[in-house]
Design brief:
The complex is a heterotetramer, with two copies of chain A (about 400 residues) and two copies of chain B (about 325 residues). With about 400 residues, chain A is an alpha/beta fold. Chain A has two domains: about 35-345, 3-Layer(aba) Sandwich (Rossmann fold), CATH 3.40.50.970; about 350-375, no CATH class. Chain A is about 45% helix and about 10% strand. In chain A, strand 5 (about 215) and strand 6 (about 220) form a beta hairpin. The longest helix of chain A has 26 residues, at about 55-80. The radius of gyration of chain A is 24 Å and the shape is globular. Chain B is an alpha/beta fold. Chain B folds into two domains: about 1-185, Thiamin diphosphate (ThDP)-binding fold, Pyr/PP domains (Rossmann fold, 3-Layer(aba) Sandwich), CATH 3.40.50; about 195-320, 3-Layer(aba) Sandwich (Rossmann fold). In chain B, about 35% of the residues lie in helices and about 20% in strands. Chain B has helices at about 5-20, 45-50, 60-70, 90-100, 100-105, 135-140, 150-165, 215-225, 240-250, 265-280, 300-305, 310-320, and strands spanning about 1-5, 25-30, 55, 75-80, 115-120, 145, 170-175, 180-185, 195-200, 205-210, 230, 235, 255-260, 285-290. In chain B, the strands form four sheets. Chain B has a five-stranded mixed sheet with strand order 9-11-10-13-14, with helices on both faces. A four-stranded mixed sheet of chain B has the order 5-7-6-12. In chain B, strands 3-2-4 form a three-stranded parallel sheet. In chain B, strand 10 (about 205-210), helix 8 and strand 11 form a beta-alpha-beta unit. In chain B, helix 1 (about 5-20) runs parallel beside helix 7 and helix 3 packs parallel to helix 4. Chain B is globular and about 60 Å long. The chains are: A alpha/beta (about 400), B alpha/beta (about 325). Bound molecules: thiamine diphosphate (2 copies) and magnesium ion (MG) (2 copies). One magnesium ion binds near residues 185, 213 and 216 of chain D.
Chain lengths: ~400, ~325, ~325, ~400
């Protein structure tokens, strides 16, 4: 398969081992980087051939296009006041999609907020994501059968949950593994370190995927990781690790497939750095022109993961402009329908935020909910009032 | 019935819940072979194996964060944090995830988690081994907060906490871990979360307290020779305001005792609630005998910091004389 | 005098202190070229250079922990935490080190640190961007906690905080970052920490509040047409109990308003203190109009969570009618 | 000097670099391990000769012996109730001592609680450390001129302070660097990661020294780091890193000297794993027999850093039994005198814990202090009482 597995970690450690004199090599390693279909149309047959069957490729392409269109619509919704702050996914579709394509339906996918394409592939309804960013918790009520977790807002925290979820699978003797996505910025948080360290030392089957899109809001990736690669963060844990062109769906699928196979076989974690780029602003509340160079953005527009597959399919005569036009129409309809469904959901009841606080609401919270007040005077009376009037 | 100290009562509760429910597992620093630094989990790894009693890396956020993942998957993890002073690194996972998960997913994910934490001062320990942060977690909606004051209560409350479908902070007052024993039923039993216990009844004044301070309150009551009612909260959140209200409406006077600093300690909430609920019954302002608004000093001075029978007595006297 | 909003007032205070004192430097996520997500530090990196306005890695414990080191060395760092919801990872460094360093070293090391944090709800933001954790830090001895309610106050209080030799949590109510302007002296000036401001005087009832809620209080007072005194705490710890006492002894009635959840919010402490200090002057139980004891909901419902003029009015009426 | 500096980090990263096809090496590195004087008496002249002048070696030896004796006395003090929980340093003297020997007097030394030997070398009075463990904050009142920080109890937290202290030096244009010590267990905490990451990315001159003593209370080092070395944790940050026999004072001095020189020159951080062993219990509250093998302990007794120097000096005829006896007597006296001084310090005033809370005590705290009560009734009266009676 072209690269050795796992990357060499050539020493083991023991408290009673002898110490050789005077200078020896305690450890050495290297990290590979994989690329199959580049932006110029080169395709490496040795790794790429047969990797993604053509019918699947068409479906994956459609998924990316739909996601992109929804992204554009969401942006406009925000601008016209019909949606809150929204983080665009534009340019990063191939990373989470490739991962979701490889994962089993009942593996856990533990993401952040820029993995719509992968979540939709797993069956998460587009309107859930929209609803979430429209300021409605019901968007986070992820159906258990998708094995996806709610959108994670506090950066860096969700990887620990992935470790815990995979640990639960190991505990129960299930085959399930977990994959978790996070950004280059997130890899600065202490929780990132603890998640990797727990998984490595307790032998828990997790794939850690860093989506290095070169920016954390306005901070270039070097502010968060000045090392030559983010992939090498994993060496700290003795974890196999690899870097991949994240805008290359083929390479993502290849690397993810090898990593998941390794993780399943060994019951231990694996790291992947997916190198990609955020083509849009950080969120709709951001203006990336304040801090980054248009030249860089333009360079990455030329590396768009969607265009790459489009060109590849065309070069293989799987695709033409008519097909593209039909597909765009379908995708646009799908996206617009999702928006209509999200906006069609009736607003939550004023009191809805009380109801899921606990399995059983403490009496004091019932009182607060029913009286809609925290001050005490008249509280008991108005409570009985509400209680009786609700009959 | 067995004559047990608080450590043994908790150990027994853990054994019984682990035997009964495969979903229960323990994780934490040094809890395995070593049985935890207070030996609360002594013998459990030998009994239940290394997969159910897991020594983790030294990282509290990691302990709670992975426990949240375990709970999301439907297990019932019981992490131990070695001392309350080391809850800090886990604060974010507790407050931004454990406490919020149910409501932010509208019930799709729940966190049946019981965090065990030795708490409080008085054992001559180094710094950061003697604090009482219960008010911090009582101010965090989505959590339950429990603090037993006796072996019997500890066992019954812990079993309830483990079975509770929501995250519970279970604070174990280390000062009374081994200071006395009492009869504890060998069979499993539960004590309801959110219900206080009237330790002794009286008509002249109500004392509200919890955890290790209950011992000092008893001493002060005995010393006083007055007819005092002592309410042990048992659960800090949700708290049994009805029991407090009933008692204070009867006595008209109340002293609250806790180890944590005065300002914004949980005594403040109780005092405010008593004002709100018993205004016309109060014969004197509610008094608080608490730790001072300073950092808990190193152990040479810790007994000068903690509320003791003497300080409680003075408050009782002042309140009765009012 | 200049007509400034709160963001501009803070920006100006930062400029003036940085010009005056080389020891002052800023650090945080996106505060440099980007000027912070709220643009509070806009233009400062261009003005003072990259060594005095530093974009840090995305790690709050790292920001506060290194700031503590900077302060130990005698500098006056002003870290920004992007939103109060992201204070969690820094909680441990704040409470186990910043708050304790002076006393645990008996003054050998001090932490002249000002942590700037946008706080509170009402701006339609995603989850964890709308909370009010001031009570948590008020319950942490060793810290000072400040929350201005206007551009004028913000500038004067921030300059005091920066010059204060102890760590200050400086909470900036984001709801009023740009909602109004007022005259702010262009020269530097300080407002004493620990002193409240009487926003308007009255004899019938006292309202105590702070931060963005002061606006809702004013609305309710206007609506009521009654003779109400409004005390804006300005500093949550140490708090101006004398000003509260004086006012409540005059009016006999008090309503406390804050965004944080009711239970163990800072309103509890004020209520308890009023009982302790003004018992015989109270005509009615002190009332608290606060956030509910739930997680702050996502923005569709946030206005149903936050105390508004309507809820405040009801409490005023109930209290006056008592 | 026998090993290349810094360990190769052979790629740099740019957001607009091209992605080569299909599999390339993104990163490779190796970590060296250094040993000069081993437990069998072998001494590597190529690295060791002239490294520590003989007169210095004698002083360093005396420092280690004194520290060891104090350690034993402290243990007995605890057992007889004259001291609280105490963490013995036994077996680890060479690590912090070698580091302190190399550091400048005005470099920062930011330690944990098992670095007595290095602290004493810098001038911290022995009685300060004793006083601290006797439950008295005054033991932590480290005089500023020693550039040492107070004992750190919350594991993993102090490395961030080291980064901040060194940052302050850089900010002011001072030459000062910081060295920080922490355990293998501490390397699991998120703060460890953040401290390294800040130092690397913001280019701050810190030497991170992990004292890997193979145990974190009852957890073997693999629970906290299952990777072949702890040294490789630093690769995550692109930081030069090296492993050294921490019971070999010569090797510690060599590695520390190279690292500090590199850090001073480049203004960036460097990592060192010092491999050592905790010969005693974790603290006096611990009983290590519960969890570790006596064979392992015995093996490490044979690697004692003090014995090693003793044998080396003897082999070079610098030392004999008479000198040893005289030295032991001196050291014992020094240690006993320190105990006497610590126990001679009068107990703090009951109210002392109020006084350093703030630069200026808030009125409310003055009231609490003067009345020694938190309940309000009679508080103002007794306050004025105290106030007047204190005249
Ligand atoms: C703990 C925490 N700190 C700060 C923020 C504010 N914030 C939101 S996204 C973001 C940048 C994240 O960067 P990265 O991890 O690279 O992900 P990306 O947005 O590039 O996908 C920041 C600082 C947050 N949400 N959580
Ligand atoms: C944050 C925190 N968690 C837990 C503890 C309890 N504790 C004290 S020392 C220790 C082990 C430290 O191991 P290591 O870092 O290897 O240092 P060593 O004691 O071996 O020198 C633990 C868990 C603590 N002090 N701080
Ligand atoms: Mg990013
Ligand atoms: Mg260790």
């Amino acid at each position: 398969m072209g690269y050795s597995y796992p990357p060499s970690a050539n020493m083991t450690r023991s408290a009673i081992a002898d110490f050789p004199m005077p200078i020896t090599t305690a450890f050495s390693t290297e990290i590979k980087r994989v690329s199959i279909l580049d932006e110029h149309g080169s395709f490496d047959e040795s790794l790429g051939k047969g990797l993604i069957p053509d019918p699947d490729l068409l479906r994956l392409y459609e998924a990316m296009v739909t996601c992109r269109i929804l992204d554009e619509i969401a942006f406009r919704l925000q601008r016209s006041g019909r949606m809150g702050t929204y983080p665009q996914n534009m340019g990063q579709e191939a990373t989470s999609l490739g991962a979701s394509y490889v994962l089993n339906k009942d593996d856990w996918m533990v993401t952040c907020y820029r993995e719509n394409c992968g979540l939709f592939w797993r069956g998460v309804p587009m309107e859930s994501i929209l609803l979430h960013w429209m300021g409605d918790e019901r968007g986070n009520a992820m159906p258990r059968e998708h094995f996806t977790t709610p959108i994670a807002v506090p950066i860096g925290t969700q990887m620990l949950h992935a470790t815990g979820l995979a640990w639960a699978a190991k505990y129960r003797g299930e085959k399930r593994i977990a994959a978790t996505f996070f950004g280059d910025g997130a890899s600065s948080e202490g929780d990132f370190h603890e998640a990797c360290n727990f998984a490595a030392n307790l032998e828990i089957p997790v794939v850690f995927v860093c989506q290095n899109n070169f920016w954390a809001i306005s901070s270039p990736a070097t502010v968060n990781c000045s090392a030559p690669t983010v992939a090498q963060r994993a060496i700290a844990y003795g974890m196999p690790t690899i870097q991949v062109d994240g805008n290359d769906l083929f390479a993502v699928v290849k690397v993810m497939r090898d990593a998941t196979a390794w993780v399943r076989e060994h019951g231990k974690p694996h790291f992947i750095e997916m190198v990609t780029y955020r083509l849009g602003d950080h969120t709709t509340a951001d203006d990336a022109r304040r801090y980054r160079d248009q030249l860089e953005v333009d360079k990455w527009k030329g590396r768009d993961p969607i265009t790459r597959i489009f060109n590849y399919m065309k070069s293989r005569s799987l695709w033409d402009d008519a097909k593209e036009a039909a597909l765009r129409e379908r995708c646009e309809k799908a996206a617009n329908d999702a928006v209509a469904r999200a906006e069609g959901i009736v607003d939550p009841q004023k009191n809805e935020f009380f109801d899921s606080m606990y399995h059983e609401l403490p009496a004091d919270l019932v009182l607060q909910r029913d009286t809609r007040q925290t001050h005490s005077l008249g509280q008991s009376e108005s409570a009985s009032l509400t209680a009786s009037s609700s009959h | 019935m067995a004559n047990l100290n608080l450590v043994q009562a908790i150990n027994l509760a853990l054994i019984q819940e682990m035997e009964k429910d495969e979903r229960v597992l323990l994780l934490g620093e040094d809890i395995g072979l070593n049985g935890g630094v207070f030996r609360v989990t002594d013998g459990l790894q030998a009994r239940f194996g290394k997969s159910r009693v897991v020594d983790t890396p030294l990282a509290e956020s990691g302990i709670i964060g992975t426990a949240i993942g375990l709970a999301m998957a439907g297990l019932r993890p019981i992490p131990e944090i070695q001392f309350e002073g080391f809850l800090g690194p886990a604060y974010d996972q507790i407050t931004t995830h454990a406490a919020r998960m149910r409501t932010r997913t509208r019930g799709a994910f729940t966190i049946p988690l019981t965090i065990r934490i030795p708490v409080g001062g008085g054992i001559h320990a180094p710094e950061l081994h003697s604090d009482s942060p219960e008010a911090i977690y009582a101010h965090t909606p989505g959590l339950k907060v429990v603090m037993p004051s006796s072996p019997y209560d500890a066992k019954g409350l812990l079993i309830s906490a483990i079975r509770d479908p929501d995250p519970v902070m279970f604070f174990e007052p280390k000062r009374i871990y081994r200071s006395f024993r009492e009869e504890v039923p060998e069979d499993e039993y539960t004590l309801p979360l959110g219900k206080a216990r009237t330790v002794c009844s009286g008509n002249e004044l109500t004392i509200v307290s919890w955890g290790a301070s209950v011992v000092q309150c008893m001493q002060a009551i005995e010393k006083s020779g007055r007819d005092i009612e002592l309410v042990d909260l048992r659960t800090i959140y949700p708290f049994d305001i009805d029991a407090i209200e009933e008692s204070v409406k009867k006595t008209g006077r109340c002293v609250i005792v806790h180890e944590a600093p005065l300002t914004c300690g949980f005594g403040a909430e109780i005092s405010a609630r008593i004002m709100e609920r018993c205004f016309l019954h109060l014969e004197a302002p509610v008094q608080r005998v608490t730790g001072f608004d300073t950092i808990m000093p190193y152990y040479k001075l810790e007994l000068d910091y903690l509320p003791d029978a003497h300080r409680i007595s003075r408050a009782i006297d002042d309140c009765l004389a009012y």
